[in-house]
Specification:
The chain is of the alpha/beta class. The chain has 2 domains: 375 residues, Thiolase/Chalcone synthase (Peroxisomal Thiolase, Chain A, domain 1); 36 residues, no CATH class. 31% of the residues lie in helices and 21% in strands. It contains 12 helices and 16 strands. The strands form 4 sheets. Strands 1, 2, 5, 6, 7, 8, 9, 10, 15 and 16 form a 10-stranded mixed beta sheet that branches. β1 and β2 form a beta hairpin. The termini are close together.
Length: 433
């Protein structure tokens, strides 16, 4: 049974977004529509790094007093999550009229945040005179006493943003934190959708947070062979292009507020879009194999849940990580999924606008997809010029495309063989399913 029609449809009434492009969903959309990127050069001791960094974002000044002391336990991505969720909840009209037990919250996280990195790394550097060798115990102990925050363990917990947001918004219904790296945001969206669809919640908030910009995280990703060499600066991040060589990192958060169409109508809320269907799939395997089957199954499941055919899509926002094997597997999955519609449905990768933000990226693409529906335009894939010949049949957006059917599919996959997808449309969009 599809969830995209009728008074029991699950609709989106609030959007929130923080990224290297700026704060606020509207500001981010304006930057994407203009083709701007938030990725820039950062000078480090080892040379110039290219990444997407969020600047000047702080917690709201009007936090409840009981949460002010708890806010010191939030890491960077947690702060972004609070700001993005606050924007989404505010746009939806707030939660005051919803019983606490009927408020659901799902947060996708999975920061590759080494415990205490921001404190332990400088302390070790001080204790060893910058050599990171032969540390004297007394000097190391003194440096740790002076520079290491005793609460460093707490800010690395993946459920920290979930706990804080639960208290901030008084969410006492169904909810959890998901630590699945890249697909975690879409997993949060799926659970939020199902909580409203099945009647367990009146309102559900889905949040994705991530920060992949610190040096240790980038070292780990580089060790996995996932990062671009950055030889062309920000233009090095070029999903689906035949010259791609990996991604550049970023950070941010995105949030959506979901409720039933019936409730939104009763309270006169503006419906931004409808979540018509969701899907996920898993194909566990050792190492970093990229399998097109798991992504195709997740996308097919979302279309089936929505009651849609591939030709009913106006565009696809895929994962688009820019890795050689990952993009190849994903494009094969999309080509097989679309079949006869492969040449008519635009495919656009958005991560070069922000950098790969981990669990924040897929919900960011969902938010930007809703705004693309409203604008009637599909953004281009930054820096894309040409794909491998086997994908010539696909319509990869090298320039902005006019929107046909006001419906899109967003998909993501991650390390460990997990994939998730969602179908989102404007109310009343036609379908064949």
């Amino acid at each position: 049974m599809s969830g995209g029609t009728g008074s029991d449809a699950v609709v989106i009434t609030g959007l929130g977004l923080v990224s290297p492009l700026g704060v606020g969903a509207a500001a981010n959309w304006a930057a994407v529509a203009a083709g701007r990127t938030g990725i820039g050069p950062v000078e480090e001791t080892s040379g110039t790094a290219w990444l997407g960094r969020v600047e000047g974002v702080t917690l709201p000044a009007d936090l409840p007093p009981k949460l002010v002391s708890q806010s010191k336990f939030l890491n960077r991505s947690g702060v972004f999550g609070v700001v993005a969720a606050g924007e989404a909840v505010g746009q939806s009209g707030g939660l005051d009229d919803v019983p606490a037990a009927r408020r659901s919250l799902y947060v996708g996280t999975g920061d590759m945040q080494p415990v205490g990195y921001e404190f332990l790394y400088p302390a070790t550097r001080s204790a060893t005179g910058g050599t990171f060798r032969n540390a004297e115990p007394a000097r190391l102990n003194q440096a740790a006493m002076e520079q290491v925050n005793p609460f460093f363990l707490l800010d690395s917990l993946s459920n920290n943003p979930f706990s804080f947001l639960s208290a901030l918004f008084g969410c006492m219904g169904s909810g959890t934190c998901l630590a699945a790296q890249s697909p975690a945001g879409n997993h949060a969206l799926e659970l939020a959708y199902r909580s409203v669809r099945t009647g367990r919640a009146d309102v559900a908030v889905a949040v994705g947070v991530g920060s992949w910009i610190n040096a240790v995280v980038r070292h780990e990703l580089d060790g996995l062979g996932l990062l671009s060499r950055g030889r062309r600066g920000a233009a090095s991040f070029r999903p689906f292009d035949r010259r791609r060589d990996g991604f550049l990192t970023g950070e941010g958060a995105a949030a959506l507020v979901l409720e039933s169409a019936d409730r939104a109508a009763r309270r006169g809320a503006r419906v931004l879009a409808v979540v018509e269907g969701v899907g996920n799939a898993t194909e566990a395997a050792p190492g970093l194999p990229v399998r097109d089957g798991v992504t195709r199954r997740a996308m097919s499941a979302a279309l089936a849940d929505a009651g849609c055919a591939p030709a009913d899509l106006g565009f696809i926002y895929p994962h688009g990580s820019g890795t050689v094997k990952g993009d190849r597997a994903e494009l094969r999955a999309i080509r097989d999924l679309l079949s006869g519609a492969a040449g008519s449905v635009p495919v656009a990768g958005l991560k070069p606008h922000t950098g790969h933000m981990g669990a924040a990226s897929d919900l960011t693409e969902a938010v930007l997809g809703v705004l693309a529906l409203d604008a009637g335009s599909v953004p281009a894939t930054p820096h894309f010029e040409s794909s491998e010949p086997e994908f010539d049949i696909l319509r990869i957006a090298a320039t902005p495309q006019p929107l046909g059917v006001p419906r899109f599919l967003t998909a993501s996959y991650g390390i460990g063989g997990q994939a998730a997808a969602a179908v989102i449309a404007l109310p009343g969009s036609p379908r064949r399913g």
